[in-house]
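FORM 12-B: Structure-to-Sequence Request
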């Protein structure tokens, strides 16, 4: 059996041994962990380069530092200003809300001569929590007063982290649009209200309103879909009997 001659690249071949120097500082045998600390000349060169970089870019670096400082200071000042504005808005809004709860809607909206009304709070303190809430109160007041366009404008400027309150705002926007004969827009807002944190207590009522608005828009397929949702998703709701009754009417109107 012939033997295959082995070369240096043949697997298993013995590699020639390199002589090991006894000097740990010999070239190729020692890599210092921190070369700058162990080589004073290299450290001096690096420091000189850093100083030169700072001299050449001093204005740029100072400008960047000034921007950062101004941004931090500006954010702090804005936060403090907004907090003070919110405090003023809440104080101004207190009497307006009292009139709103007493159903004195004109005074609630316009003020009484001594205290400002919801309109002023919403406009002058926009961006504050109190100003945001004033939009909701003003929207409801305008809706009750028959000022449907104004009501929609106020309610569109309102937003809330409270899921039920936000859903209610969408439903009120539906009411404001319905009163302006904007049936499709109204139906879309009712649908949004029904789907926003959907629940047994409020969603069936919103869906019933949506179905009515879609019927007025002659969107019978959309109305049937809303009625079906009440029947299938909320069978224990108070609205389910009305939904079954109105569904039959919508089917007749749609020719089904």
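FORM 12-B RESPONSE
SEQUENCE OUT:
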């Amino acid at each position: 059996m012939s033997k295959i001659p082995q070369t240096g690249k043949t697997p298993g071949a013995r590699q020639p041994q390199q002589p090991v120097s006894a000097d740990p500082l010999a070239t190729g045998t020692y890599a210092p962990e921190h070369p700058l600390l162990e080589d004073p000349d290299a450290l001096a060169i690096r420091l000189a380069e850093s100083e030169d970089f700072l001299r050449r870019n001093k204005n740029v670096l100072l400008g960047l530092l000034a921007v950062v400082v101004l941004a931090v200071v500006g954010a702090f000042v804005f936060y403090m200003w907004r907090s003070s504005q919110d405090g003023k808005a809440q104080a101004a809004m207190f009497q307006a809300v009292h009139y709103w709860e007493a159903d004195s809607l004109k005074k609630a909206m316009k003020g009484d001569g001594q205290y400002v009304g919801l309109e002023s709070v919403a406009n002058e303190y926009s961006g504050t929590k109190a100003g945001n809430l004033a939009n909701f109160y003003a929207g409801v007041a305008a809706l009750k007063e028959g000022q449907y366009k104004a009501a929609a404008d106020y309610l569109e400027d309102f937003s809330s982290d409270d899921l039920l309150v936000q859903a209610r705002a969408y439903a009120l926007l539906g009411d404001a649009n319905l009163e302006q004969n904007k049936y499709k827009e109204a139906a879309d807002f009712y649908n949004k209200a029904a789907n926003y944190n959907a629940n047994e207590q409020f969603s069936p009522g919103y869906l019933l309103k949506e179905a009515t608005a879609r019927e007025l828009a002659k969107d019978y397929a959309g109305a049937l879909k809303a009625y079906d949702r009440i029947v299938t998703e909320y069978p224990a709701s108070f609205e389910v009997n009305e939904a079954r009754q109105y569904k039959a009417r919508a089917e007749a109107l749609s020719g089904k």
